[in-house]
Amino acid sequence: MYCVQCGVKLSDNEQKCPLCGTAVYHPDIIWEDEEPLYPKNKYPDKRKRSFFTQALLTAAVLLPLLIVLFCDLRFNGRMSWSGYVVGALLLFYVSVILPTWFKKPNPVIFVPCGFTAAILYLLYINGVTGGDWFLPFAFPVAGGVGLIVTAMTALLHYLHGGKLIVVGSTTIALGLFMILVELLMTVTFASISFIGWCFYPLVTLLIVGGLLLFLGCNRPARESVQRKFFI
Ligand SMILES: [Zn+2]
Fold first, then answer.
1. Element (H, E) at 145
2. Among 69, 171, 191, 207, which residue's CB has the most CB atoms within a 10 Å radius?
3. pLDDT for the residue numbered 110
4. Which residues of 122-142 are buried (b: 16+ CB within 10 A; e: fewer)?
């Protein structure tokens, strides 16, 4: 390193130029009594919202919920169609608004919460419509996707690096899961026969997942793609 003022050669531990006294900033060394040259937190936490905003968001969901419920009870004397709206609003609240109440919402907790809410909503619809598709179809499909996505979220959250490998494996798992979805559909609904539509999403997801795995394992290829797409 050289002094910016007089150009004399400086050693690494110099805080001041020995010749002209100009302060020396070494970009990689931060002295204990020195302010860092740049702020440590480049992206301040934007998720932090005031209590007022949170309360407003909650009211924005709660108010239509109550109005819908009131109208339905008033005109039909019981909860009929409003159940769907109430369920959908609750599902939206649990999966979108509820996590924002926390400073750093842990997706490993909130992702399965969202899926659980969705499963309960499906159970409700199944019960109201007198359907028999929840246990043999909706539950295993929503539960399976929920498990796969939760596993991916946990790996992405707790592992450092290897993100492409995790997303690639998840994509492949979802592709294979499509076979089960079609099988369950065929078994549950007598009118549907197995035509093998699942192989179209399966092949697509296998190709995409395989590509992500390849890029995750092959550093030169990954870097050349990053350079090409400026990411
Ligand atoms: Zn100097």
1. helix 139-158
2. 171
3. 93
4. bbbbbeeeeeebbeebbbbbb
| Contact (CB, 8 A) for 22 and 6 | yes
SS (H, E, C) 28-53: CCCCCCCCCCCCCCCCCCCCCCCHHH
Residue 9: beta bridge partners?
2
Query: pLDDT grade, residue 68 (50/70/90)?
Result: very high
Q: Give residue 39 CA to ligand 1 midpoint distance, Å.
A: 27
Using the mean position of ligand 1's atoms as its centre, give its distance from the Cα of residue 35 in Å. 21
pLDDT digits (tens, 9 = 90+) for 82-98: 999 999 999 999 999 99
- Domain ranges across the chain: 1-44, 51-105
Question: pLDDT tens across 38-48, in order?
Answer: 666 666 555 55
Ligand 1 center to residue 13 CA distance, Å?
Answer: 14
| Nearest CA among 4, 27, 28, 30 for reference residue 17 | 4
Strand partners, 16: 23
